[in-house]
Structure formats: structure tokens, C-alpha cells
Amino acid sequence: MPLLYKVLTAVLSLTGCISLLLTGELNLLMCISGLAILPGYYRFLKGMQPAPKWAVGAFSLLTLLVFFADSIVITRDTFLAVAHLTIMFQAIKSFDLKEPWDHLQVYFMVLLQLIIASDLTRSLLFGVVFVVFMVLLVTAMVLSHFLKEGALGKVRTGKPVLLISLCTLLMTVVIFVLSPRTSYQFFGKSHSRGIKTSGFSEKVDFGSFGNIKLDPTVVMRVEMDREISPLYWRGLALDYFDGRSWKNTREDKKRINRSGDEFRIAQCDKGRPLEQRIYMEPIDSDIVFGLSKICMIKSEGFYMYTDPGESIFLHGKSSRRVKFSVYSDLNEDYEGQGADWYLQLPGGTGKIEALANKVAGLGPDEKKAEAIAGYLRKNYKYSLRTVEPPAGVGPVEDFLFNTRSGYCEHYATSMVLMLRSLHIPSRVVNGYFGGEKNEYGGYIIVRQSDAHSWVEALINNRWRRFDPTPASPAMRPSGLALFIDSLQLNWSRYVVGFSSADQKDIIQGLSKPFRLKQFSGFKMPDFKILHYSVIAVVLCLTYFYFQLRRRRKSGFITERYLILRRSFRRMGLGTKQSMTPGDIRQAGASLGIAEDLGEFLRIYEEHRFGKRELGPGDRERYDMLLKQIRKKISSAKTR
Length: 639
Fold this sequence. Notes:
This protein is of the alpha+beta class. It folds into three domains: 3-179, no CATH class; 204-480, no CATH class; 549-638. It has 17 helices and 24 strands. Helix 1 (3-21) packs antiparallel against helix 2 (37-45). The radius of gyration is 35 Å and the shape is elongated.
């Protein structure tokens, strides 16, 4: 077996395993056995004998037992357990490669690994791995064909590999574009884990102290029709503070009415609302983020709810990558109603109340709120380092009167407590602030490091936003990082998020130049009927194209040889694709055609593999021999 063919098998096996590891979703402990691939393929490339059958069988049985333990006890996820099983299988198979069928098993397992990886990640890197897999697989299959035909080393394989790879990738794109789309992912849900690092949270907790590291993980990417500032991506409103942490106690959610793909939360103002096309990465929350005030959301395949704090929840979004459009009325304030829970205070806030009265002074509630926000911004320092307060002192009191430094949660909490002590209903809002403009794609990147808390105060029955946190320096990524991120967005938008609406746009765009004015009122047939009709036509055209191309490329000598093989098959001799001319010569020995068949196959081999040119007389003799052989085969069949 040629060394190149062995190397391709080894590289393909590693490609499948790497595609799973790159998802970041596997249990590394369950993947340790995959390291056996390295010595296994080293032995294979060196031409050493395969492992004994009893050893392969014993390890296969052990692997099966580990799989059951993995799916029931360790990861408790059958899907991930199957991913671990494929890596263990590849490790065992690397010690047991003998027949060509063994290589096909490796190729099939690699394909299964890529299918699993496609559900575990939406990374652009997976697309690169898939293209590499396609090219390597085509190369291996072409080499396998020439190896079986005995032509390996006698013909050039570069051009066939290149052409077949391009055709395969083209057909993959066509099938991808034409395949029907649903609102559900593989196995009904994505197995991507939510982001569980510092950043947005559905609660504010002052129970941990020390240095807080900013997390650059991308949370969402947003396209907008026009630029505005500032950008406060509202998430969850929190109403109850126990002295150390905030939480949302108003969990009585109400389902939002849906019309088609539109969820109407409130009546949009007469002015044009701002559309935000949001591509959301998985986070461990069902919160929908958007600029206030959200009046409508467009999304497919989900249910949405809202709570008394006017937060919006998209059921089933957690641990999924989703896209939706948010429409917002960009008002400085919006109508609201007061409630007792927006005046709740923990015990021991006397000093905070005294400070609030001193800072706010006399005047309307709006002036008091502005005075408190300005006081906190001017007299306190932003810091991500916190220390544990002295015994008997709360974290907010320690921030206001001792350290005088903290992060956004300290500022927002302090302002809300000061407002509530003045009987002004208020709440803490968690979300994201700002984001960075990606000039390559014209969209905004929002990261975990942009997580922010601010204040909403009810003044004159309208909720107003206040941000008492002083500005902090922002870190800008490199131009290369932004360019790669724009590629990631396009991958998510046009490949991962490719939908039936995109299919309609492609078909309408392709048909637009061919539309006639006199048929402008013609109504297009139902899209599903048109969809499947186009698929059927494309598949038929593809089949006939490859049949015609096969005949043309085969040439005179090979085409006659294929006719001979079909004649033997009809005779019931059951010739297989892997049979050599010598096998055919032996199969026809009992038919009394050994002399003609031998001369026919000799001419075929001299031309096909010996690069001998056929003269006019040779072509006539070759054609005549085929007719004589087929005539004798027919006579033998009738007897």
C-alpha cells in the first residue's frame, strides 16, 4: 500500500478528532485515550503488523462500557458521549488497519465526527476544517480508485483530485443552498454551552472580592440602520436588595402576543423605530437585549415573555446562537408605574439616607437624581479591585464612606439606595454598554467586558435612565482581530444562519433579470413547490452532466472496456468495480472466448496503462473484437 495513501488516512483520522476538540465542548478526561492514535498510526506508517485480534476486541468491549458510563454518569449527555466514543474508536482502529474496508470505516467515522462537531460549534474555524476534510477525502478516494485499477504511479493524479474537489465543493454549496430549512437545530437543540465568565449576570452579588478580570468574549454582534449614541443594551431590571446582592423578585412573566414572526411589546411611536439586527452568542440566560424602549421583536421559532420590570425573555435562547431583530423607540424616558418593591431598603441604611439628603438637597425629584449621579461620578474612582469590608460594614456603605472606589455595580446600587431613601422609586438594570465599531463589517461588537449596570428612576410617572459610573478606559483590539471577527459574522449570518428567507432572496434575485413586463402581475407558485422542483431539476441536470462527462472523458478505449464489463454483468458473472482485467480474463475462460478476450484486454492495457497510441487499424480491430465477444456471450446465455 503506497505511503501517501497511508498518510492521508492518518491525517483524515486526526482531522475528525481535531474538529471535535476545537469545539471546546468535550470532556478532556474522556479524550485522553485518543492520544493512542499517535503510536497507532506511527506503527501503521512504518508497516508494522496490526494489533492482535483479541487485544482489539478487548479494547472495543472496554470502550463500549466506558461509553455507557460516560452517557449515564460522567457527562450525562449521550450526544457528547458519542463524540467521545468516535475518538476512542479512531484510536483503536489505528492499530487495526489491514483491508481497504478498514480505511473506509475511518473515513465514515471522520464524517460522523464532523457532523457532531457542526452541532457543537458555529466557529469559522470549523468551515476551514470541513474544506480540508473534503479535499483530503477526495484525494484519498481518487488514490484508492487508481490503486484498485493498478494505475497508481502510471497516471497523474493532481488534475483529477483538483477537478473532483472543486466539483464536490460546488455540489456541496448547491445542496446546502437548496436543502429545506427548519426552525430547529440538529437533534432539536444546540449543545453549545453558555458563556459562564465574568460579565452579564441575572443578579448582582457583592459576596466576592479581589481583582475582576475583563472578559473579551463576544456576546453579540449588532447591525443598525443608523448610528446613535450612547448605546445602553438593556437586559434585566432588579428590584430587591438584601444588603449584599440584588435579584429580581417579580418573576410573574406574561407571554407576548405573536403575529407571524412579530412580537409586539408596545405600540411603536409614529417616528421610524431603530432596527437592531442582533446575532447573539450563547449565554446562560434567556434575556433579550436591545436599546430602550423595545416596542417590537422579529424572530422565528421561539416564544417570548415579559415581566413587570419590562425585561424580555426569549424562551429556549439559552445555550443557542440565535439572530433576531429588535425595534426600539429611542426616547429619553417612557411611561411607568410605581410599586412598593421599588422603594424596598435593607436594614442599616441610616448613613446612606443622611448622605442622600445632603447631596440631593431641595428641589424636584429629577434634580435630586441628577445631583446624586453627578456626585458619584465626580467624587469616586472606578476600579476593578475590591477588598472585603470590615466586620459589621456592608459593601455599599464601605464603598461610599471608606474605599470610595469600585465598579459599576457599586455606583448603581449606591444611587438606587440613595434614591429610595428619598422615596423615589428606582431599580438597578443589568445589560451592556457601548461596544466597538468594526469598520470591516459596519457592525458593533459587544463583549462580556461591556457588561454594565445603571439606574432607572421613576420621575413624574416616567422611567428615566441615570448612569452614575465614571468613564473607564476601553481596550481596542487589533485590526486583524476585527477583520477575523467580520469573517466570523459573515459565517454566522450566511452559513450558520442561512434560512428559507435567504433561499427566497436568492431565487428571486436570480430570476429578476429574466422577468418580462407583460408577466409582472404573475403570481409565483407556492415556494415549497418551487423549492422542491428546483432541487429535482438540479439533481437531474447534475446526473446527466456527470454521465455525459464520464463518457467523454473515458475515451474510445475505456468506453468499449466498460461496455464489456456490463456484458459480463448481464451474463451473471457479477464483475465488481475492483476487478482487474486479469480477473475478467479468468471469469470468461469458461465461455470459449479466451483468445478474443485476451487480445481485447491486451489492447486495452497497452493503451490504458502503457500509453500506446491506437492506429486506425487497431481501433477497428478493437471494435470488432468487442462485437465478437458480446455475440459469443449472448449465444452462451441463450443455451
